[in-house]
Every structure is written in C-alpha cells, then in structure tokens.
Amino acid sequence: MNRRHLIQTGLAAFGAGTTGCAAPPAAPPSRYEMPMESAPHLRTLMQWPVSVDVYGARDLAAVQANIVAIANAISEHEPVAMMAAPGARGLDRAQFSRSVEVWDIPTDDLWCRDSGPTFVKDAAGNLAVAHIRFNGWGNKQRHRNDGQIAARVAERLSLPLIDSGVIGEQGGLEHDGAGTMMAHASCWVNANRNPGLNADQIAERLGKALGATKMIWAPGIKGADITDYHIDALARFSGPGQVLIQIDDELDPEDPWSAAAHQTLGILEQATDARGRALEITRLPEPIDIRGTGDDFVSSYVNYYVCNGAVIAPQFGDRRADAEAREIIAALYPGREVVQLNIDALGASGGGIHCATQQQPA
User: Fold this and answer.
1) Active site residue 355
2) What CATH number corresponds to the domain at position 216?
C-alpha cells in the first residue's frame, strides 16, 4: 500500500474521522522567517515508521531499510536525529552510523516533512517552530503520534511553538527564502484541512508563519492521492526565484498528473517572484526504464534533500535519466556532493527523500 493508493482505501481502513473545526485566527505578524533548505543546518530530523496497518510487515521492513540508508547518507555530512519510541518495531541502533541519534519521540509513519516541525529563524538567529498543524492529510490516516511531533520537538529543544493558523503539511509548500512561496491549492484550500478559509487567507497565514510576502498558487489535483498533490513531488525552489521542475516533454491529456503538471508549469512561466522578477525555470527529465512497477510508483528526482555539503537524491534505474538528473542537480548546487540512493520502497509508498526529512537550521 502506498500514499497514492491509500486515499482509495484509507477511510475504510482507519475510519473516516472528522475534518476538525476551522483553524484559529491568524497569528500576529511574525519576526521569523524560514531559511532555504540549502542554508546551513544544525541537524536533520527523521521519523521511524512502525505502522503495519499502512505497509504490512514485509513492505514495512523494506521502507525501514530505506530510512536507514537515507539517515546514514545524511550523517556523512551532518548529525541526524531519528525520532522513535523506545523499543519501536524494527528499530536497531546498530544499523545506524554514530552520527545518528535516536530521540524518544513516538512516531507512526516516516513523513517528517509533513508532520515534523517547520523551523523558522529571527534576525538574531533565534529559532522557533511555526506550527503547521498535521491532521493525517485531511484525516485519511491515523496520526495519534505524528500529529504531536512538532510540539514535542519544540518542547525538547525549548523553542517557541507559534501557531500558523493553518492545517497542512510542509511538503505541500515551497519557500525560496526570499519572500516567495508556491503550492498546489488542492492540498491547502480544501475542507479536509482548512474548512472556511479561502486561498487568500491561507496564503496570508502561511506568509506570516514563514516570513514570505507572495504565494504562487496552481490548482493541483484533489483526491487523486493521499496528499492532494504536494508540490515537492513536482517542483522545488533551488534558489531565490529559481524553480526546478520534473515534467514530461508533452502533455498527455489522458493522464491527470501530466495535465496538472503542465498546468502548474504554465502558471510558473507567467509568474513573478516577490521582487517582481520572472522565475528562472530548469527542467528535469522523467525516468522511463525504472525498477519500480505500478502506476502509483513515485519516481520524482525533485524530491531530493539538501544537507550540509551534499544533496541526497534518488536514482530509479534509468541510467540515462539518473545521470542527467545528477548532472542538473549538481549544477544547481555547486560545491555539494550529489549522493544518489535506491529508495524504491519509498517510491512504492508514494514519497521520497525530501518527504522523509526535515532540516533544523544552524
């Protein structure tokens, strides 16, 4: 089972739940700003997946092996904190390098980009957590532990927890560190997360939380996967006003993902950033001859993670596309080593490396 398929079965498996009440009033203007992922980190945070209900025992073991590989690759460049309950299923400290620390914070699943803390920073360098509240992608999956992770990390680190006034996931939002955000409206302007709030209200609250002044909205797709189409599987900011997008050469009108991606590209090509400049857009290839099978497999090169001195990126077995993606990413992040990993179990689960990580700025 993966995140794209879970939306078809998750309500029956876990119960429909409720969408919750409307988000609280927006916080006052913030002095905090979210640094770009490529800014220096103190550490990377990750979550240990334990849900047999979601993965089944065999697939869970494969997913856990991918998480170990990602954590160890990142730990070559910066410390990693793996959140897990004591005695968590499948957790073996000996699998990890010495630079991976285990934090006693219970988890359900691995998607730290979505349920983990969103760190922001003030002009003096003081950190806080902007609390984008997680509700299991619109109550599609149980989140008893994951819904509390951001608050528990803030408490552990003695950081202020500032309510953003919105429900959602950081994987559904990109910020260029210079005032510009982009997102698919499908995973924010949605009654399963933010009932009663419109796009302008959500953009204003996210802007205050992250220190941004402009949102570029694209429609996205509601209901086709558990995330309602997170932007970080399609397009990323690689620098202020610079967008990297993975897209096929020609729109396939029979494929809703292709149609939505090209719609997003068209909007980005017409958009300007917070400073009024046209966006610089770089394209990544779509891999074709890959190891992963099934229509739901997520083969997203843009779902990479930037850490101190490296970019941890996927490879999918298409030698030409893997090499081209590596070359493009290396050119966008000069001076950083590009480390490509086989993360097919995560791809089959509907996500990637970026989805599984969360940076704590230095």
Assistant:
1) yes
2) 3.75.10.10
